Amino acid sequence: MKRxxxxxxxxxxxxxxxxxxxxxxxxxxxxxMPFGFKEINEDDHSGTIFIDARxxxxxxxxxxxxxxxxxxxxxxxxxxPQKWHFAIHRYDVKTHDGSARQTDFTTFDxxxxxGDYENGVFTTDTLSKVIVDxxxxxxxxxxxxxxxxxxxxxxxxxxxxxxxxxxxTMSGKVYILRMDDGxxxxxxxxxxxxxxxxxxxxxxxYIYPL
Length: 210
Prior knowledge:
Elements: H1 2-20, E1 36-41, E2 46-52, E3 58-63, E4 68-73, E5 86-89, E6 92-95, E7 99-102, H2 108-114, E8 123-124, E9 126-136, E10 141-149, E11 157-160, E12 167-170, E13 175-178, E14 184-193, E15 199-207
């Protein structure tokens, strides 16, 4: 009888732990949302991009002009697409020879009303390290990979790992992306989870060209 109660207690304990660490180890489930470019409005050049960014080894490369989203595994040395404007790795963001700045606006309507597109300091990418393997997190054994990252664009989401489970805070700000050809786009990151609250599913609203 004691053994039975012990098994039940262990099961309950594991269930409790899963709740505590659910913010760290997300269950991989079938895709519940359409990925790529959706809700495209050609009249105002706007749309929404859904990205599956759960795989820490991959970058998803976004081409705003052709409305495509292609992935490449950086650990395996996959070649990136020839043409792209910005890319997502989990919650990291980088540009293709471009630059970006964070505005004080939280909606596209505010941005358009201001006409404040070019003013401010635009930052370029810098060499950084991104996590490619989280399996050893609880023992402090994370695996990193060198990559270019735009620190300003990556501010769209702050992940505080000083507490468990981590605290996720979105900036809610509109970002201006300036491409290498001088064209501008407005980006607004609106979610980092899907409808089932699984993290790593990114939703981005955009205007291109701005």
